[in-house]
Amino acid sequence: MIRVKPITWILMMTVCLLFTYGCKEQPKQEEIVVDNLETELSEADFKDLWDRADALWEKKDPNLIGTVYADNFTRISPGGTSKSAEELSQELAAINNAYPDMTLDLERYEILGDKVIVHWSVDGTFTGELAGVKGNGKAFNDIVGVSIFTLEDGKIVEDDSYWDTFAIFGQTGYSIVEAKE
């Protein structure tokens, strides 16, 4: 008679259960429901908003925040969360200090009612300082990002933006290493 250790028995049963239930046909996921389709943004309105956002980031002028963002906006990004023009001005200043020649390019977008999914990219040179990391004058190109905007009255009330921060550091010659104790 073959004796099986209890841990081996448990592992074998776990694999069998996972295989049995994992191979069953899964129900189809529900489609994403967009809350506010009746207030769909027009292509022209989005392009106007994008031109204002592009000017905000490329001209580095915090006075333009009110032309893009509603008074009650929330922006979540790798740079943190901003809920006021002052907080967003600080993020804008930090990014533009680190990458003063940064340019923003619209890649593609999709309008879904009062939401817009925007794919964009940036190019620039890391000459300033960001979060204690000093720039070395090296360029970065085609760093991709995605923003999901929720709009009211032609302005952004929610901005969830994400970009590949590791690619920026990688292209500019930096690497992430484990801290020494």
Explain the overall architecture.
The protein has a single domain (39-171), classed as Nuclear Transport Factor 2, Chain: A (Roll). The protein contains 5 helices and 8 strands. It has helices at residues 6-22, 43-59, 65-68, 85-98, 165-171, and strands at 69-77, 80-82, 103-112, 115-126, 129-130, 133-134, 138-152, 155-163. The strands form 2 sheets. The protein has a 6-stranded mixed β-sheet. It is globular. The termini are far apart.
| Order of H and E elements | HHHEEHEEEEEEH
What general outline do the C-alpha atoms trace? Answer: globular
For the biggest β-sheet, the strand order reads 2-1-8-7-4-3
Structural class from helices and strands? Answer: alpha+beta
Low-confidence spans: 11-24, 29-34
Q: Which fold name fills CATH's third level, the topology?
A: Nuclear Transport Factor 2, Chain: A
The total of helices stands at 5
Q: Helical amount among residues, as a percent range?
A: 25-40%
Distance between the termini: 53 Å
Secondary-structure arrangement, i.e. CATH architecture? Roll
Give the CATH level 1 class. Alpha Beta
DSSP strand count: 8
Percent of residues in beta strands?
Answer: 25-35%
Compute the CA-based radius of gyration: 23 Å
Mean pLDDT: 81
Give a short account of the largest sheet: 6 strands, mixed
Count of individual domains: 1
